[in-house]
Amino acid sequence: MTVLAVPGTGRSVHLERRTLVLVVVLLAVILGLGLLGLCFGADWASPGEAFAALAGYGDSVVVIRDWRLPRVLAGAVFGAALGVAGAIFQNLTRNPMGSPDVIGLDAGAYTGALIALTVLSGTSAQLTLSSVLGGLVVAAVIYLLSMDGGLSGLRLVVIGIAVNAILTAFNSWIVLRAELEIAIAAVGWSAGSLNGIDWANLYLPFTIIACLLVLMATQAHAMHQTGLGDAVAATTGVRLHRLRLLMVVVGVGCTATVTAVAGPIVFIALAAPQIGRRLAKAPGVPLLPAALTGAVLLQGADLTAQMLLAPVALPVGVVTTVIGGCYLIWLLTKEVRRV
């Protein structure tokens, strides 16, 4: 066990040595993928040119610092947010299938964004607010439908899959009824893409995600206590109803904020928490490995999307769907064998 002091708070964080090593390795991978993302483009830049551009020197300042850097940071931050959202809902449902994109929260956020596009003027603030509201409404509906003498993770997942199917059909109807230009934009956006992201798109989402992640970090210990069982958590002073409400708000907020900017990017929230848990060999679904694994997965998928048919950049959602589909087949096969 390693104890890390948090400067200025008087608090400390307890990490298993294996988890600490994993965190260091994942951070190194994230930095490596980030550097590759800064160097890759229509014209390759050397690492030296990339560092010089970040410092404001050389001929590639605009290309690297204003065009490529926002995309690299978006991949890391959005991937971490999706990883945390997946870990939250997999802890709540105690089911590896309990992911926001599987139980319909992505579809709910997309519905809110579609309403902002078709009914309102579709500004960034409207898209973000509508996505969060859409995700929260769908989360409340799924939660209420799942309550039958207590919260059952399996029942919540099954109801969530059904709600996801209904919302997918409803979203298709909205797109079919929309004007041609809005429908084309909505369909392209629904694939999930980081293409064309710049600094103006990121200030508000980064601020929201940072606040949500800090808030969730303060509740990480209590969340892991719930993994030992409701009775054990209650005896250690955890207020279960308040904690679960907070977890749902943070999980939906992370998912909806990413969806508002980049569209629904599927399977990162499903795969990252389980991959992080297996790498850390930790009980429950820990938040930090899930966040870092999500960042690595989304950065890697976005680089693949840019390189696969270069110079044409695919939507990153296409790549995550292929990767996630393979992971889902493996996960379902494993679950069936266990039953």
Can I get a quick summary?
This protein has helices at 17-39, 47-54, 61-93, 105-118, 124-146, 153-177, 180-190, 203-218, 220-226, 230-235, 240-262, 268-280, 287-308, 316-338, and strands at residues 2-6, 11-15.
Structural class: mainly alpha
Quaternary organisation: single chain
Q: Main beta sheet, described?
A: 2 strands, antiparallel
Q: What is the helix content?
A: over 70%
Rg (CA only): 20 Å
Instruction: Please write the string of helix (H) and strand (E) elements.
Output: EEHHHHHHHHHHHHHH
Number of helices: 14
Shape: globular
Q: In whole angstroms, how far apart are the ends?
A: 34 Å
Beta-strand percent range: under 5%
Are there runs of 5+ residues with pLDDT below 50, and where? none
The strand order across the widest sheet is 1-2
Strand tally = 2
Average of the residue pLDDT scores: 83
What does this molecule look like?
The protein has helices at 17-39, 47-54, 61-93, 105-118, 124-146, 153-177, 180-190, 203-218, 220-226, 230-235, 240-262, 268-280, 287-308, 316-338; strands at 2-6, 11-15. The chain has a two-stranded antiparallel sheet. Helix 4 (105-118) packs parallel to helix 6. With 339 residues, the protein is mainly alpha-helical. The longest helix has 33 residues, at 61-93. It is 73% helix and 3% strand.
Strand-helix topology:
Layout: E1 2-6, E2 11-15, H1 17-39, H2 47-54, H3 61-93, H4 105-118, H5 124-146, H6 153-177, H7 180-190, H8 203-218, H9 220-226, H10 230-235, H11 240-262, H12 268-280, H13 287-308, H14 316-338
Antiparallel strand pairs: 1-2
